Amino acid sequence: MRTTVPMGKDGYNAGLGIISTPLPCAPAHDRVARAHSGAIPGYGTWAAATDDGRAASVTMTLEPKTNEAVEHLENAVDAALCS
User: Fold this and answer.
1) pLDDT tens readout for residues 63-79
2) Whose CA is closest to 17, among 29, 39, 34?
3) pTM of structure
């Protein structure tokens, strides 16, 4: 589950539906979040956890259709995992 390959987006790797990315609060590649996102009409989610047991999940009552909306989800999870 933790074996990933580069996705072409800086820092993001994927494998078996799991995305891994370094957290912005950690030194480069020192602490990563393993995440999964999802969307159905009207909703969007972003959930992630760290190896040390921190976990966070955010749900939007609006399907994230723009990069800006996805960034809001990611930033909320990052803030929770970095605090």
Assistant:
1) 777 888 878 888 898 89
2) 34
3) 0.72
